[in-house]
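Quick one, tokens below. Sequence please?
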């Protein structure tokens, strides 16, 4: 099957017809897979992907050649968002070791260059205070870095630098791909609204992080040809693993409804 519908004709100055940026959002990242499923059913196959945190996790599976449904089964069956508790905090309360093992077991590509679809992964360089969009070399360590929410997770050391969740600087990384594709899709699974049940340290850290990474969203939304988001995802927390199927269906349904109502692509 062709990775791109004939109705998406490339322009002379853009290498790719359609690109998609996937935001961070913890377990809400299951919605990205539903979004991709709906897009594929409408004969829309992104040719280049960028992702932050949960978006990087969804992105690596899709870029490695897994279908959205296959990716979801791997995520859900392996409880990829069920993190290991660290008893004595040492730069982070939770461990990403389990996620790393799952990626090493299932991802066939060892480097970015071996992926079937180009992928950019956003991570925050704490030493230099800047965002980095990884696109070359080893891949799993960069995806883990992109998903390491500060305080909750231990930072990742890459080439002597300390990296954490890319959402610190860019939770919807459209920058690395917007000039490379004719049409840009943004999938945002981190809607911000009121929250009452702030009754634990993890919930407070999660809420603080979500509010911080929500900046500049409107500006990015306007840069997208198709922006997908639903307030329904607000009711699911960072670790609501048992709601995975509902979250996947939410992403699928909102994308399907959006495309049927008005398809700008």
């Amino acid at each position: 099957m062709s990775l791109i519908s004939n109705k998406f004709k490339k322009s002379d100055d853009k290498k790719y017809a359609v690109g998609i940026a996937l935001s961070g959002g913890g377990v809400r990242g299951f919605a990205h897979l539903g979004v991709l499923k709906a897009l594929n059913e409408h004969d829309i196959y992104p040719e280049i992907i960028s992702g932050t945190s949960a978006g990087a996790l969804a992105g690596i599976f899709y870029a490695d050649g897994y279908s959205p449904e296959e990716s979801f089964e791997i995520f859900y069956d392996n409880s990829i968002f069920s993190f290991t508790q660290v008893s004595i905090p040492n730069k982070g309360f939770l461990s990403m070791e389990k996620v790393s093992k799952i990626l090493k077991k299932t991802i066939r590509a060892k480097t970015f260059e071996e992926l079937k679809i180009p992928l950019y992964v956003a991570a925050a360089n704490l030493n230099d205070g800047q965002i980095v969009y990884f696109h070359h070399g080893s891949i799993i360590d960069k995806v883990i870095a992109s998903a390491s929410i500060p305080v909750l997770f231990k930072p990742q050391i890459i080439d002597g630098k300390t990296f954490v969740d890319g959402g610190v600087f860019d939770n919807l990384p459209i920058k690395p791909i917007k000039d490379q594709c004719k049409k840009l899709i943004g999938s945002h699974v981190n809607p911000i609204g009121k929250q009452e049940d702030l009754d634990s340290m993890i919930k407070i850290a999660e809420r603080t992080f979500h509010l911080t990474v929500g900046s500049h969203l409107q500006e990015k939304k306007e840069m997208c040809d198709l922006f997908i988001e639903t307030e329904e995802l607000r009711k699911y927390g960072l670790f609501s693993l048992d709601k995975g199927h509902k979250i996947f269906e939410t992403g699928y349904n909102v994308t399907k409804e959006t495309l049927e109502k008005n398809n700008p692509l």
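The chain is about 35% helix and 20% strand. The mean pLDDT is 84.
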